[in-house]
Amino acid sequence: MDLRILFVLLTITIEAMGIGLILPVMPALLEEVRGTDLSGAALWGGVLASSYAVMQFLFAPAVGNLSDRFGRRPVLLGSLLVIAVDHVILALASTFWLLLVGRIVAGIAAATMSTATALMADISKPEEKAQNFGLVSAAFGIGFVLGPAIGGLLADLGTRAPFWAAAILASLNLAFGLFVLPETLRRARPLEWRRVNPFGAFRAIGALPGLGLLMAVWFFYQVANWVYPAVWAYFTQAAFGWDAFMVGASLAVYGVSMVVVQGGLIRLVIPRLGERRTLAIGMPYNAAILAAVVAVAATGNGWLMLALTPLSALGALVAPALQGIASRIADDDQQGELQGVLASITAVAAAISPLIMTQAFGWATTGGRDFAGAPFVVATALMAVAWALLAREARARPTAPRAPTPR
Are 369 and 363 in contact (CB under 8 A)? Predict the structure, then answer.
């Protein structure tokens, strides 16, 4: 394998593992530093999670723009150094406020995922971009599956052990990158401060023909898809009576299925169907799967839900196909900015979707109501909006030469 691709995949995997490694110990750590009970720990944990997502939204375009100006290598390696140091600080933190600062810094540094994706775009042939973006998603899936599992094992060594492990992993990957990662940016773009903030970057990328609608498709798709992590544990307990073991097992099934789809199946599907046809089939498929979840919930059959879980992972073909189309539209010196914008939109979706979905779940399961599938009805409607916007984008696709990029 190309060592540059291997470095990108390791970076994404380790970043995802770093997120998952600390999840098992966060309740106990917050109880420790705040002197609170589990309910209070959950509240403060929400603050930490939100701060992380907000920083990704604010800084992903900035990090992407910096990589378009100064190159992928210094930005990626610098971010890995910051992540390693930040996890050391988190391992030593004795107050909540230091934990909060650590998660803010981690959210900023984690915006480097957009740079890793831009690097993948740099080294991929146009017809291979969507497939290689699938590898990026698969790497994230592997890290997301491995992280909590390893974090749970390390928790026996204390609440700080996972942070030390994350720091060591980031340091090892930094050392690997120093030796194998060349600069891949072909043409640097002058840094414009008005495009460093997320709103300026949105305007610049959205001005490219067709990308405004594709960004809207990406947003509604992400908000709909976030229904799974937002309410899965609550939904499956209410609908099927699952315990923590069954919830974890179902998430593992989904994670492994995602890796198979985005790491392998995508290399068979997209070359044969193309990115546009993959989207044309994948978007209604996602809507149908969400609707099927509602129907299965009504039966109360947990085994049927478990069987449906890997089928839902097939819908993950949509994201790399969308990224591939968007990457073809943007210039070589805008790949970092584009991936930063997509990462920002994903961060907004990650912040908004849990609020919408948990409210829908709460309303539908109180006051004598017993409709645990309500969040998935909302998600189905949002996926239908994404599907309609995609159809509109297809009709409005420009045939004339592309307009000059705003500078």
Answer: yes
